[in-house]
Write a structure and sequence with these properties.
Blueprint: E1 10-14, H1 29-42, E2 47-51, H2 56-65, E3 73-76, E4 81-84, E5 89-90, H3 92-97, H4 104-111, E6 118-119, E7 130-133, H5 136-152, E8 157-162, E9 166-171, H6 176-189, E10 196-201, E11 216-219, H7 225-234, E12 241-243, H8 248-258, H9 283-298, H10 306-315, E13 316-323, E14 329-331, H11 332-341, E15 351-364, E16 367-378, E17 381-392, E18 403-411
Parallel strand pairs: 1-2, 1-10, 2-3, 10-11, 11-12, 13-18
Antiparallel strand pairs: 3-4, 4-5, 6-7, 7-9, 8-9, 13-14, 15-16, 16-17, 17-18
Helix pairs in contact: 1-8, 1-9
Bound molecules: alpha-D-glucopyranose and magnesium ion (MG).
Magnesium ion binds near residues 17 and 202.
Length: about 425
């Protein structure tokens, strides 16, 4: 949370399943479009928060399967667990705050008496979240009876129904909206209130997010009826809430445009970067752009032209070096030869490349050190490399204005696949 020096330009708080992640899109295209937009224009000055119903274990399972970015804050188990940074440091203060009028044993004991409630798997049960499945037509009555029953024990609980099937029992103080309000209060205490906040969701457990004062909200096009109805009945700030016409992450990008919250054209949607205006060129955008070219070249989606390779020879300083994760040093010129020969080597495969955690440090007036994770998904295999590059704008005649002068990569923990077909000189 302390990653930024000042206040965030934009705080995005997004649900994961069927909001950031479209489980009906095996290519993950809208998620990858969002990733490119975020890393090129927002990572440096904004904050990304994932707020999910998933438990930490189930969130990790999703992360392995889908090309999710690393958020600044992760709120899990329907607003009952808050964790900071990539090392996911838990907020113990929040968890003890939730103990008021909560007794897990009483909740499990009493809910067991409702035959309509089927317990969810153990992986989804958490200290401040007891979860079930219940059929839609029985849900209302069960919620009412259960609330009355637990009240008799002096408990104050919140019962949340999502996706026409999942029922969560939480402490009254918990929930996605309460957790966000708590985060915003923390920012305020530090004098770092974000300029804008956008909450994004699709189902019942997201409803609370839309009640937090002064936030913009997007219900993605595929949002559940239960959320749409809830918002039309309860939301006081309806002019700040939009129902996108696009699904999942594409709906989030759309809402950034609807509310004029900042750049809303993903670099993934740009075919010809030469047409880009100067103001969008920044070191973060430069690395996003390069790896998009790299992906398209290897997928055989761009025209196989000498022009492309000649441009790369201008872009990469002829005396520059690439240090491969194995420690081997290769002159840039040789890397480009290999890339030139790799045209279409991923044709027809599920090959995608994205960058995560882009951080930019200006080290003198025309030189930047850019650090990021470069990730590759090939079918089910994933490989990530922590990458550092040195960029200079000394050669302003270059398209985009930057020249690459040095690049160094190391394996991100556990990411080395030891694939036989690795080409060590491909960056
Ligand atoms: C996620 C969780 C589940 C919860 C549901 C609704 O799917 O895994 O436990 O009931 O969200 O909040
Ligand atoms: Mg969802």
């Amino acid at each position: 949370m302390d990653r930024l020096d000042g206040a965030a330009r934009l705080l995005i708080v997004s649900d994961l399943d069927f909001t950031m992640v479209d489980h009906l899109d095996p290519e993950n295209l809208s998620l990858l479009r969002f990733n490119a937009l975020w890393e090129a224009f927002y990572r440096d000055n904004s904050l990304l928060v994932f707020s999910t119903g998933r438990s930490p274990t189930s969130y990790k399972q999703l992360k392995i399967k889908k090309p999710l970015l690393t958020p600044d804050v992760t709120i899990m188990s329907v607003g009952t667990e808050i964790m900071y940074g990539e090392s996911m440091v838990p907020d113990a203060e929040w968890e003890s705050y939730l103990n008021q009028k909560w007794n897990r044993d009483v909740v499990t004991g009493e809910t067991a008496k409702f035959p309509e409630l089927t317990p969810q798997p153990e992986i989804d049960q958490r200290p401040h979240k007891v979860s079930f499945y219940v059929e839609k037509d029985k849900a209302m009555k069960v919620m009412k009876d259960l609330a009355e029953c637990l009240e008799k024990y002096g408990l104050d609980v919140k019962i949340v129904y999502s996706s026409g099937i999942a029922l969560d029992v939480l402490p009254q103080r918990a929930g996605k909206g309460q957790a966000l309000a708590y985060l915003l209060k923390k920012f305020e205490a530090k004098g770092r209130v974000p300029s804008n906040t956008l909450v994004c969701g699709d189902s019942g457990n997201d409803a609370e997010l839309f009640t937090v004062p002064a936030v913009h909200g997007v219900m993605v096009s595929n949002a559940q009826e239960e959320l749409l109805e809830w918002c039309s009945e309860n939301a006081r700030n309806s002019h700040q809430i939009t129902h996108a016409t696009e699904r999942c992450a594409a709906g989030i990008i759309q809402a950034i445009g609807t509310f004029s919250l900042g750049p809303n054209v993903s670099p993934r949607d740009i075919q010809d970067f030469l047409k880009c205006t100067d103001e969008i060129c920044n070191p973060g955008h430069e690395v996003v752009k390069f790896y998009l070219y790299y992906e398209r070249w290897r997928r055989g989606e761009v025209e196989r032209s000498d022009h492309f390779i000649n441009n790369l020879r201008l872009l990469f300083n002829s005396l520059g070096t690439f240090v491969h994760p194995s420690g081997i040093e290769i002159p840039f010129s040789q890397c480009i030869d290999v890339l030139a020969n790799s045209y279409g080597d991923q044709l027809g495969k599920q090959f995608r490349v994205w960058v995560d955690r882009v951080s930019v440090a200006q080290i003198c007036s025309d030189t930047w050190l850019v650090k990021f994770d470069k990730c590759e998904l090939c079918g089910k295999d994933r490989e990530c490399r922590v990458t550092t590059v040195l960029l200079t704008s000394r050669h302003a005649e270059l398209p985009g204005g930057f020249m690459w002068i040095y690049m160094h990569q190391t394996w991100l923990d556990g990411s080395f696949l030891g694939r036989e077909d690795q080409r060590p000189w491909l960056f």
